[in-house]
Amino acid sequence: MMQPPTPEADDTVKIPRGITPRASLPAGPPAGAPPAVRGPKRRQFLMPLLAGTGLLVPAALAGAWFGFKSRGGGNTLITLTEAQIDASAPCATVVSAFALDRAVVVIDFPDLATQGLTLDRVAALIEKAHLPRNRVLTDAELVQAIRSSGDTIESYYYGHDYQAADLAKFFHLAALQNIRLNPHEMWLHALLARLGWLAPGVCGAIITIPAASAVIAPDMRAVILHHEISHGAFYTDAVYRSYAESFWYSLTDSDRAAFTGFLGRQGYDTTDTELMLNETQAYLVFTRDPRFFNAAAVGMTEADIARLRAAFIANMPDFWLRPLANAVLPPGAPPNPACRTIPAAPANFASIAPPQPACRICAAARPRLACA
């Protein structure tokens, strides 16, 4: 996940993690509204999740359009490049396979609120600090966790990333606990089931971004996507994951402590070493924007950061992500004035009717793959 730092607090952007299975997918959930600015793997606002679920579920799923196509007996996902995603201004949720690695599925949400309602509870389970890793939070607990962090549903994260295994774990625990999921989370479950990602042994990663808005400027959206793409590669390419780990342990103790401290201030669970090294590669190399990451935020000099970044890129495995390490980000599309949004969510999960999407949702599916 991702979130930008405040001018004087050296705060930064955040992004979640996840990976394992993959298969076919459905289309997107209803829309929400945006909050105060933050960065990539950043937090989103708090919006009503559970209450009124009986009424919300039908409305949420009715707004989704499942655009699967069958080819040779298998399901195929629409495929989009980074530039195509950046250039879009979705009014409704769009689900696609990333062109450079179809094991990475991109969910492009129409606003921060919809994204937060769909994935904030997952973030709480998988990577937020001081929260349980063996159980899913109830509505009341999630509201309290988000309030305690100083965030809202919309700002809990500005972008999310998870491997299939983490998502499967979330829904397994929720079922065991009889957690009453909100319509957006139920939509995500339907998507994962369609993809086949709820079964063990699947390799895949979901990354998400919100549409441009008053909170997320077009260039910020591009930065968030770029950051999240690096997480997708981390989850689906075993060689790159191993390289990122080796780089982490090649750092000095003080350098590791600097990045750990930075990530801890962003609310990440610093006891999770894989999370620390995954976020380090994403911020150091793929988040070239001082609003989200800068030398001062980690207590280093610009020369220190340039040196570490150059060393990382010089020895990167030669695969599709490497050219993106020095890529100039494509321009982003401004907010779509035709899209309808809803007001920022209240601070609880009291019943609230999900907004009706202004356009249909795209989705698709793909066959399972095994991580190399």
Give a topology summary.
Layout: E1 44-45, H1 53-62, E2 69-71, E3 74-76, E4 79-80, H2 82-86, E5 94-98, E6 101-109, H3 112-126, H4 139-148, E7 154-155, E8 160-163, H5 164-177, H6 183-195, E9 205-210, H7 218-236, H8 238-250, H9 253-265, H10 273-286, H11 302-314
Parallel strand pairs: 4-5, 6-9
Antiparallel strand pairs: 1-7, 2-3, 5-6, 8-9
Helix pairs in contact: 1-6, 3-6, 7-8, 7-10, 8-10
Q: Write the element-wise H/E pattern from the N-terminal end onward.
A: EHEEEHEEHHEEHHEHHHHH
Give the CA-CA distance, first to last residue.
24 Å
Percentage of residues assigned to helices: 25-40%
Global mean pLDDT: 79
Give me the count of strands: 9
- % residues in beta strands: 5-15%
Rounded to an integer in angstroms, the radius of gyration calculated over CA atoms is 19 Å
Low-confidence stretches: 4-27, 30-39, 42-74, 343-370
Oligomer: single chain
The shape, in one word, is globular
Main sheet: strand order: 4-5-6-9-8
Broad structural category: alpha/beta
Described by strand count, sense and barrel closure, the largest sheet is: 5 strands, mixed
- With helices defined by DSSP (H or I, 4 residues minimum), what is the helix count? 11
